[in-house]
Amino acid sequence: LRTARGLVVQTSAKVNLTLEVLRKREDGYHELATILQSVDLWDRLTVEPADSLSLVTSDPALPTDEGNLVIRAARLLRDAAGVNRGAQLRLDKRIPVAAGLGGGSSDAAAALWALNRMWGIRWPVKRLQELAERLGMDVPFFEGKGRALATGRGERLAALPATGGLGLVLVNPNFPLSTKEVYQRVPSGWSQEATGTGRMIAALRSRSPRQVAAALTNNLQAVVGPAVPAITKMKAALLAAGALGAVMSGSGPTVFGVARSYDHARAIRRRVTRAGWSVWAVRTQGGACIRQARSRG
Ligand code: ATP
Predict the structure, then answer these.
(1) How close is the Cα of 242 to the center of ligand 1, in Å?
(2) Whose CA is nearest to atom 15 of ligand 1?
């Protein structure tokens, strides 16, 4: 096998254009329908050949052992593919942690992707996605392209035509929310129909930001909102600054708004200036969620 030298990849954040939690399953998971959309806010992962596995990260609050999804992904791939090599990994975080933007899942997907190359494993995307599912429901999405419909527990993926270029504004209140705890707050007996996701697919086909904005939905917002007042405030601030519509992403607390264009998104970003909040103007991505940034060595 030809051994690649080190490489650097950038891996995107996602927002949920819709998130409809339908019901609680016997196995403790939730049945859901969601449209995942990659945006151009990136973490960066560098991998280099080494004898053992090690990780350093730019965020001192993150674990660098088994607690980090990057290490878990590396171990999983190494065992599944039966390789007997190590890697020195460096993770530069730009995506806020526990934010509803899928950062950890994205990093895990990037680790599988980069090590699949560097270790010369050469598995196709489909096979990486099967492995990825064991790391988390959102991980398979990041192995693929910018927009997908996810159903079941979130692991069943169908690609959606991705047009890209929609301007969004993300607002994060700089505190984390645990996905697990949010889902635990979903009342037992919860039962809802997936009506918003079909509407969003039609809105995306129209390519009209106004229609996309009108179709935004996240029924976890009703579960999280009462306990986290910042969510209502961020949403109101986005709308007051000119967003066409706004909704919480995933299990929160990040809220995003839809703009008329990327320029409009940047104008909105400048108007949402509350101390303690982080704000980004981003574009939706049509292409691969993981990209090679530059080769090393
Ligand atoms: P999702 O949108 O999929 O619910 P999230 O954006 O809310 O995810 P993450 O940023 O993925 O949440 O992090 C959730 C938890 O996972 C954090 O508490 C963090 O300690 C842990 N974690 C492990 N590895 C990573 C990583 N590489 N980056 C971020 N968090 C990680």
Answers:
(1) 30
(2) 98
- d(C-alpha 145, C-alpha 204), whole Å: 16
Residues contacting residue 257 through CB under 8 Å, at least 6 positions apart: 168, 169, 171, 213, 235, 238, 239, 241, 243, 244, 245, 246, 268
Tens-place pLDDT, residues 142-169: 999 999 999 999 989 999 988 778 999 9
Q: Are 164 and 40 in contact (CB under 8 A)?
A: no
Q: Ligand 1 — pocket residues by CB below 6 A?
A: 62, 68-70, 91, 97-105, 107, 138, 179, 250-251
Would residue 138 show up in a list of annotated catalytic residues for this protein? yes
Helix axes 103-118, 125-132, angle to 10 degrees: 130
Task: Specify whether 14 is catalytic.
Answer: yes
73-89 mean pLDDT: 97
φ and ψ at residue 197, rounded to 5 degrees: -70, -40
Rounded to two decimals, the pTM is 0.95
Give the number of the atom of ligand 1 that is nearest the alpha carbon of residue 67.
Answer: 23
